[in-house]
């Protein structure tokens, strides 16, 4: 049995390979790590949650953690909130608009709801602040490079796609800003190290005592 497993969940319009570098860094840190691929637009939300739940249950590990980028963080939390018995490990959300996304609402309002598909509701509305027992950490990017910045949506700190305020979820145990863009959170060495710290201790500070 592996001591700790991590399932990585990608964001909307992406596929699992976008998290290959993060997977490698988590493996180097000693975690058994695998990718979860799902149809973020064409697939229904219930079907994706059911598939992720089955993947969680299939892990032969003492603890199972989830790390989700953008919509992947929302899907991770939605799944755990409906998971009987909860999650044995922790969740890290990278640039996830847990309070809802202004960019997603702009896209939907312009008639582009089909571009969001099964991810539309959580992206537009966010999630209720019901934190799982294991703990949730959120990383937010502050380098404004992305669709939202180009469209002039933000007048506040953001990563180009998601505003920092959209990631400040009341159900989170820890929140940290990283000087990178929305996509950059998936390849940032700092973000990877902070993720490792939180999965191990429940805090982003290196060497913190277990929560």
Automatic annotation (TrEMBL):
GO terms for molecular function: hydrolase activity. Gene3D superfamilies: alpha/beta hydrolase (3.40.50.1820). Keywords: Hydrolase. It comes from the Bacteria. Residues 6-172 form the AB hydrolase-1 domain. The keyword RNA-binding does not apply. This is Alpha/beta fold hydrolase. Pfam families: Abhydrolase_6 (PF12697). InterPro entries: AB_hydrolase_1, AB_hydrolase_fold.
């Amino acid at each position: 049995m592996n001591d700790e497993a991590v399932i990585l969940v990608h964001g909307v319009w992406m596929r699992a390979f976008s998290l290959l570098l993060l997977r490698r860094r988590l493996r180097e840190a000693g975690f058994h790590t695998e990718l979860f691929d799902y149809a973020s637009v064409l697939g229904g939300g219930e079907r994706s949650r059911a598939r992720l739940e089955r993947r969680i249950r299939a892990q032969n590990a003492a603890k199972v953690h989830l790390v989700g980028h953008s919509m992947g963080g929302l899907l991770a939390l939605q799944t755990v909130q409906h998971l009987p018995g909860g999650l044995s490990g922790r969740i890290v959300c990278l640039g996830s608009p847990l309070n809802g996304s202004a960019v997603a609402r702009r896209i939907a309002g312009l008639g582009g709801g089909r571009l969001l598909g099964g991810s539309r509701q959580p992206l537009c509305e966010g999630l209720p602040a019901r934190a799982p027992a294991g703990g949730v950490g959120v990383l937010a990017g502050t380098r404004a490079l992305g669709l939202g910045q180009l469209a002039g949506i933000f007048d506040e700190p953001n990563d180009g796609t998601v505003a920092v305020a959209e990631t400040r979820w009341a159900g989170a145990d820890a929140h940290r800003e990283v000087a990178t863009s929305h996509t950059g959170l998936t390849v940032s060495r700092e973000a990877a190290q902070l993720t490792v710290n939180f999965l191990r201790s429940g805090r982003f500070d290196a060497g913190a005592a277990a929560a």
